[in-house]
What we know:
Layout: H1 2-18, E1 23-29, E2 32-38, E3 46-55, E4 66-73, E5 82-91, E6 94-101, E7 105-115, E8 118-128
Antiparallel strand pairs: 1-2, 2-3, 3-6, 4-5, 4-7, 5-6, 7-8
Amino acid sequence: MKRLTLITCVLFLAVGLAYAKDYEMTKKAGEYMVLVTIDKNPPVTGKNNMAVGIKDGAGKDVTDATVSIDYEMPAMPGMPAVNYKTGASLKDKRYLATLNFSMSGPWSIAVKITRGGKTQSVKLNVDVK
């Protein structure tokens, strides 16, 4: 009975360690503090959900901006650069988008925030598996 309990505990521990936390990155973009979250860590080939939270200088949620996301893979020998763009829609004080990575490897992501006629951007790099 002790052996069965020990095996069960080890399995629960292994499952808990296998579940990775979402990819998160916080950066400053001009006057904004931006939290970018991707639901898979590391991101994978195919669909990945991204959420962007934006706070102004006073720490208040920004809900009146237009957010767009450009993501690209640089050119490699025998392959041209790959570029995609998508918009993000506001839901519950966060801007949501789906990124569809066409292949594994290094990708650059630029989150562009337009508000009051000014555009600020946050850039990050991910290694898609």
